[in-house]
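Contributing new records

If you add data, match the layout below exactly. Sequence lines come first and carry their own label; structure lines follow with theirs. Keep one chain per record. Anything else will be rejected by the validation script.
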Amino acid sequence: MSLHMVAAIYCRLGQFDEAIPVLERSIEVVEGRNEPDHALAKYSGYMQLGDTYSMLGQLDRSISCYEAGLMIQTHALTDSDPKVAETCRYLAEAHVQAMQFEEAKKYCKKTLDIHKQHSPPASPQEATDRRLMALICEALGDSESALEHLVLASMAMIAHGHDAEVAAIDVSIGNIYATLCRFDEAIFAYQKALTIFNSTKGDSHLSVASLFIRLAELYNRTGKTREAKSYADNALRIYLKPPEGSTDEEVSSGLVEIAAVYEAGNEAEEAFGVLQRAVKVVERGGGGRVAAGIEAQMGVMFYMMGKYGEARRVFERAIGRVRGGKKGALFGVVLNQMGLACVQLYKIEEAVRVFQEARVVLVEHYGVYHSDTLAVSSNLAAAYDAMGRVEEAIEILEDILKVREEMLGTANPEVDEERRRLQELLKEAGRPRNKKAKSLHNLLASQSLRMKKQVATKIWSGGFSSRA
């Protein structure tokens, strides 16, 4: 056991790599010994080793260690012992983390079966495991089973007076109903949770604000914009004066969600104001990349409103925030959006430069066959055509057409559009051209330049995305 203590010290110091050989040695020491104490020591070694691998992000090794621990435990006890249920829960959670939901379901079901044998009906432990099973079922697309487990979990928590847990379960129930477009039931579940949070956490808690946002989103989806704005206003009131202990990330994320509600309700000016506040919150914490993502979202809004000059300036500022650091694929997507804004401002030479850079970034991260790479390549070809660089445009369009025919087939509408554009250029390439104005008009009207908007909760580092 002293080796376990040494390993624990290493882990507390964050030195996980040093802890691993110590734990492996602790397992070797008791290998081949069958006394109960030795079996317990070996089980503990495997479980601690699994935890250590998990901290290092090595989930496959972590799961293997937990499975080895489970085998030892079931051999020393029985496969229906309550302690075995705890290990099965460990394995279920590990498989969820590894996105292996079928395996997770198997172990979670084993845990629930053991509860039936040894725990009183509707115990808090069973409720906790039913919430885990609901998460797994939802991930597997079985929403009805997920709802069943959540309802049973809620009933158990109500019986034991765990109001905070009941509210959290009601939120999960509301989320599933919202996904199923059962809006009235979703609103009822959220309202139940809101009542409990108001009484247990206070009316200025971020949990209350989060539910205001969820209700606002639902009312927007059902066309009740007045109710949606009212709930969004209530949420904003809390986020403008967040309770002590709130993190900048929580506040900025909430503000971004509120802005999305205002935008969906055609309250663009209020949405911009909220996003500007979100940027200030992020800047206060030094989150330049997140601030860039929020500004990129603002740029898309400006673009959709036809305010192309403002869109270009905001995109340029967002790009500048991260240009000197690590750039992911989303950097290329936002470059593409800036290029679209430049096109609308008739700044074609600048658009070409931006599209070229976007194409390089997307090829590096996605490859030449990805839909985003093909979209920006199509934009670059159209921009070349607008500048009179027809041969370069033809070369790109020929490559795009070949890829799209292979991927989508020759009868696909997108393939027809690319073929039509290529045929027009080929027809014009053999004679002098003076049709820049016409080409630019085609560029602005082209379907390939229509900006689509998709706003997510975590921006730039993993959330905002739009495609040309």
